Amino acid sequence: MLIGAVCGGCDGPGGPVCPTCRAQLHPGAAVEVAGVDGVRVLLAYAGPARPLVRGLKYRNRRAALGVLADALADRLTDLRPDVVTWLPALPANRRARGYDQAELLARRLARRLHAPARRLLVRRGDHGQTGLGRPDRLTGPDLRVRGRVPADVLVVDDVVTTGGSLAAAARALRPAGARRVHGAVLAATPAPVG
């Protein structure tokens, strides 16, 4: 018996993203991040987008990766980055999961954009952003550059909340040679009210 694809948004049939969940996905709002020339956002981190992204990030549910990456790539057609890189997962998380979801996404986007994918950023320290309050998230992770940095860099991540991680990437990449730093993310959390 063949098992049909399960939707990453609702766990029902018709995956990787069933028509019902697809209809409930909403475009992500524009995000401004200090030091970043522009952040392209595919989805609002709400409704079926949450389990889609969380499944990729925490449960190794990669079936929707191609669909999501291709849709995000369609929003990047005007960019011509010299390299595509990603915000690296914590080493402990990468070991536990066996993969880095942002790297998987970045490599897929790089193929679509006909650009090389290279690991340019390395995390220092062992604390993540998940679970931190907004003020602590704004600081972002401690990142350093690895290797030569070209002029035009596209930095990929799964979710942008405060923009702290993308800002930290720009702070590391610009002194190392990047003149333009763009961001691309699958989803953005809603802006805080008030």
Question: What do these coordinates show?
Answer:
With 194 residues, this protein is an alpha/beta fold. It has one domain: Rossmann fold. It is 32% helix and 19% strand. The protein contains seven helices and six strands; from the N terminus they run H-E-H-H-E-H-H-E-H-E-E-H-E. Strand 5, helix 7 and strand 6 form a beta-alpha-beta unit.
Task: Count up the domains.
Answer: 1
Identify the CATH class: Alpha Beta
Summarize the main sheet.
Answer: 4 strands, parallel
The ordered string of helix (H) and strand (E) elements is HEHHEHHEHEEHE
Helix content: 25-40%
What is the correct CATH architecture? 3-Layer(aba) Sandwich
Q: Let me know the number of strands.
A: 6
Question: What is the overall silhouette?
Answer: globular
Number of helices: 7
Briefly characterize the structure:
With 194 residues, the protein is of the alpha/beta class. The protein has helices spanning 19-24, 49-58, 65-74, 91-97, 101-113, 134-139, 164-173; strands spanning 38-44, 83-86, 121-124, 142-145, 152-160, 180-188. It has a 4-stranded parallel sheet, sandwiched between helices. A two-stranded antiparallel sheet has the order 3-4.
Keywords summarizing the entry:
single chain, 194 residues, alpha/beta, Rossmann fold, four-stranded parallel β-sheet, two-stranded antiparallel ribbon, 7 helices, 32% helix, 19% strand, globular
